[in-house]
Design goal:
The chain folds into three domains: about 5-45; about 50-170, Sandwich (Immunoglobulin-like); about 175-180 and about 235-410, Rossmann fold (3-Layer(aba) Sandwich). The two termini are about 60 Å apart. It is built from seven helices and 22 strands. It has helices spanning about 5-20, 25-45, 220-225, 260-280, 305-315, 325-335, 350-365; strands at about 50-55, 60, 65-75, 80-90, 95, 100-105, 110-120, 125-130, 135-140, 145-150, 155-160, 165-170, 175, 200-205, 230-235, 240-245, 285-290, 295-305, 340-345, 365-370, 390, 400-410. A hairpin with a 6-residue loop joins strand 10 and strand 11 (about 155-160). By secondary structure, it is an alpha/beta fold. It has an eight-stranded mixed β-sheet with strand order 13-22-21-20-19-16-17-18, with helices on both faces.
Length: about 425
Amino acid sequence: MTTRTVAALGSVMLAVGVMVRLRHASIGGAYLLAASIIGWWYSRACLKHLCYMRDFERTRAFVGDSIRLKVSIENRKPLPVIALRCEDEVPDKNSLGSLPVVSHYKPARAILQNDVYIGCFQRVEREFKFDCMSRGVFQFGPVSLRATDPMGMEEARVTLDTVDTLVVYPRLLALVGLDLPPRNPSGGTPDRGWTNPDPLEIIGIRPYFPGTPLNQVAWKATAKTSSLKAKMTLPSFQSQVIVALNLNTSEHVWDGIDKERLECAVCICASVCNELLCREIPFGFASNCPGKNARQHLFVAPGLSNQHLRAILDYLARVFMPWGQFGETLCEIAEKTPASTEILAIMPYPSLEDWVQLKRLQSHGYTTSVIVLKASPDHGEFYRSIPVYRPVNPVDWRSGEVIDFERLGPERASVFV
């Protein structure tokens, strides 16, 4: 029974009681009318000056991590809220497991419910823990607040546009059996002579080693971190690596996206970039998905820092489908990088056109190597000139620790699923 029904009933009783001079009917009708008015006012007044906040343990995580979420509902007025239901729109269990949610009419979304009582100027906190089941950029919110008056007659609802974002990166695994460029042969202290790096080519910051010239000390970074840091420059004898990711997972576009292959390729790409950073090798990233300019493929210039790796991981958290041909991506790499660049292509399902383009880049002086998930005997002729690697076992992108690679030759170009 709503407040309108109660108000109509109370008005009729009050009018009839006055007309026939029935005192009890008049008093009862007045009570019902007053209760309906108070209930209508309370259900709306109690939703004012409410604050709904989410506090993540951290806003960036990796696949397989567990995150704590603290939800706070604060009442900033002297009127208590007796019955409040909070319906927070969150990702579903396929993205974030172990979260007590109910289904939602939107795809890939769910509802996190909280029923609370909040007194005057009080705050209620609830803590949840969930597992990051897949990579992506996940949005929490908006939240719908529903309040009921003490008699349960009137319910009011308000939606708060409080939105928070959680970024889940692909898992970083150790790499075994993959030949990467060697570490800087000059070590921590640069040798003097013709092997000196160009001081204008600064690509990052590294710890200070005794013997490093004073003009190579990064004074700003030293002041920020309270420890000596040195500039990391690009020597003339050291090549840079572009990690090129092909998002095509099938022969034809209309075949759709193979999620398992795509996640394996993205996990390998992130692990390769992390390994290059650990080896202090400048690395960039390219893929056949839209970049900052919608007319060009994604390209990140080479760099060497934790911030550079974080920027690439941000892109890897967002890629889900191809935008163009991978051959066009390789052509853009050739336009933007010198011939001394090494190109490491990660291709879940390589096509003949991709192999031909890699062979053409190799003839122009580029060093190329390939990681495949599915190899075809028809492409065995390219394995003689291009180093090709394949995971020995299926990549466990959810909870794995190590990826073992084997190099393929023309005689070992078998299909791997």
